User: Fold this.
Amino acid sequence: MAPFIDNLDAHRTEVFDSLPYYDNDLEQNQILREKVERELAREPKPPQTLHPRVPPPIELFKDKPGLAAELARVEAHQPLAPLDTIRYQLPAPTSTPGTDEEWQQALKNAQSQLEHQRIRHTNLALLQTYGPNAWRVHNYLLEATAKQAETALEELKQRTTDINRERKNSQTRIGNQLTSLEKKWTELISSILQIEMANVALDAEVDRLNKKEAELASM
Assistant:
């Protein structure tokens, strides 16, 4: 689990200059939203090729053509082929009376069927003796694997929740700082404008006083 998370951290190299938990201009300004939607409509369609980080598709049963063919049949929703019961039959010679060759083939077929039944009986006996424990071990391994997968999933969910919570808190904190700085910037701009207006008024007053002084001096 840890190496997988480390790999996620190693691939996290992009830096996005946005605060989705703080910026709400699109919600407050309908005209701006319409402009963004029109701009997005002009964007080219996403590429058909997958991102380089996306792993290639897994080819199931690559070395087992029988299972691959069965998987293709299931995906195509085709019915299962009926069982071949001919090999389990004991046909007698077709001619009457049968020839020696036909009786030899029938005898060989009967011997094959007898051997097949003997092997089946042996396999059933082995399964009865060792099968329960083998299935218990198999089920135990499956349960252990399932628990590991569930634990990994819960850890990823918790990590995702923690990351989203951290992002939201960080963006909210930074957003409040931006709001404070923007308010301070607005106040400073307002102060600068007031000072400039006061300077203009003083310049006008100075010009008026200079003109008045010049008029008094000329008398």
